[in-house]
Amino acid sequence: MATIYDVSQLAGVSLATVSRVMNKNTNVSEKTRQKVLAAMAELGYRPNTFAQSLASNCSNSVGVLVSQLDGPYYGPMMAEIEAALRADNRHVIIAVGHSDAAQEIDSVEFLLSKGCDALILDVEAVSDDYLIKLSQSSTPIVLINRYIAEISDCCIYLNNELGGYLATRHLIELGHRDIAYISGPAKKHDATERLEGHKRALAEVGVSFDPALFFEGDYKEDSGVEGMHYLFGQDKTFTAVVCANDQMVSGAISVCLERGMRIPQDLSFVGYDNIPFARYVSPKLTTVNNPIHEMGKMAALWLLKHLYKHDIEVENVFEPELVVRNSATRLG
Amino acid sequence: MATIYDVSQLAGVSLATVSRVMNKNTNVSEKTRQKVLAAMAELGYRPNTFAQSLASNCSNSVGVLVSQLDGPYYGPMMAEIEAALRADNRHVIIAVGHSDAAQEIDSVEFLLSKGCDALILDVEAVSDDYLIKLSQSSTPIVLINRYIAEISDCCIYLNNELGGYLATRHLIELGHRDIAYISGPAKKHDATERLEGHKRALAEVGVSFDPALFFEGDYKEDSGVEGMHYLFGQDKTFTAVVCANDQMVSGAISVCLERGMRIPQDLSFVGYDNIPFARYVSPKLTTVNNPIHEMGKMAALWLLKHLYKHDIEVENVFEPELVVRNSATRLG
DNA sequence: ACTATATGGCGACCATTTACGACGTTTCTC
DNA sequence: GAGAAACGTCGTAAATGGTCGCCATATAGT
């Protein structure tokens, strides 16, 4: 592998000059520049990243920590992050936290030990305090899907409460009053926020929240199945179900279809996230759009702005929107 | 940040000794070892990866290049790769090729420039020759989802032809003879292989392949929709459709349901890939299992074995299996 | 001619690995 | 039992391939 030294010899200039044309092009004449470029091309020179990182203390890498890689949720986010960073010649190192505090912390340490310039974190289990402390260290972090008042500037998040509200209000507007709710795990912030929105919509029309029509799932399809079995097991009537994500809806609906029920005539459903499949499942899912890919992109742009000093605008909070399709209908 | 020098001072030993306890612990007495370990703990020492990589010419990173990050397909694969490598304290750098030759090559260059120890490639557009040449360079590569005879040892792939065969044979066994086929893009190897399998199954029972019952899609849901519109537009009868992946099935089925057709009574479908959603879509998809996560894991293990010299067994070729659920039924 | 500025060279780092060799102790051999 | 060989342990110093500040020099502007 050719080194910067070889290039300097071939071009007939000094090491520093070669280094200069690679970095800031300030203070090097166009003629020299071309000579050096030609030499680099001839040698097929490729700068040694490790040496660069060691000398400059900048790795051009950002660590991305997500809860999981499978499932329909994180793919679009990662795709946007990769694209935005890649366009700026930066690379992303991935790590998975599995929604477990110990593993999340371990992953952060791992990423830090790999010398990332910054971290993009989608963490659920770790405490606010931990993140606040982490944000004070020398490597910047940006949080996706989480709001912490003390470090709000580096939080990119969705107004989950509003999303939960929109889902339930939609059903209310369709005449439903007996609305069951299949939630995500209580330990996850977004799950509790969505539930809050649901309760607010209920309260707004004077309907009290009925714990018997509530089931705590884990965001996976199977818990949608479990949730429906549980709800059918209760001796309560309900005409609609809101699920805290689309995956649980799909599990829930499959139970109903197996029982010969018609959706949405016999039971209305509203989901959350608007994952790609929501449009192709039958019936097409009425759901709340979660612009996760935009949030991923914004996290990357945030870094470009704050860490790598690009001059761009970033926004921190995203608003969910209701997407009306065919899984919920007017009561009666 | 504490350096190895600080540790050596505190422990009262030389730099080399500290380095020795970090790497091969050979030739360092237990007493010194403990002193050094204690000093490292006291200082919260964390080795500088860049310096390590520069000096040892090993980055402990592997680049993973996939066609896309969104969609249901690559998540499970990435998850397995990350887990396997992470367990060995290695990290993965991601890049996306978008099924385009120029972008794939650019991504390979990118990954190489980032100093990866090895590359895991799931590339579709790039030529065999390019990959053969690449495999002769100093950084090892392993290919997922692709078979190239000249470098078969580093190929991890699925017997796609067999999968296509199994899908169609299943329908034939159910009495179907007029079987439409919605393919993936002809430029993708797996798509053409699956189609070959389909044709073989047809030929086996003396049914000739009818170009009018063939549609070339692009593996996305929308092209399943397009495909059905096209097929319905032909003046041909058919009683079953095999789609080259599950996403296209889901698009195709949605068209049928909109037309008031019943699946599978009016039309049978067989998919391919067995993506997680195949179980929750209604009807549940009869499909061909594609053990993509196992292939991802195997690629990582291959690297652990060949590059990092672990003593493990790896297998290169995976066999698809038919998963019978409810989207295809006996004719008549 | 004088000064401001553009340009290029020198050399000190950056934090680690590793070849080589020093040194002390053990073991072998005669 | 003495000298030599072998061995285990550890330190020195030379890479590894860059970046960057500082200084000298060439060039241009006034």
TrEMBL record, chains A, B:
Residues 2-56 form the HTH lacI-type domain. The lineage of its organism: Bacteria, Pseudomonadati, Pseudomonadota, Gammaproteobacteria, Chromatiales. GO terms for molecular function: DNA-binding transcription factor activity; transcription cis-regulatory region binding. SMART domains: HTH_LACI. It comes from Rheinheimera mesophila. It comes from the Bacteria. Keywords: DNA-binding, Transcription, Transcription regulation. This is LacI family DNA-binding transcriptional regulator. It holds the Pfam family LacI.
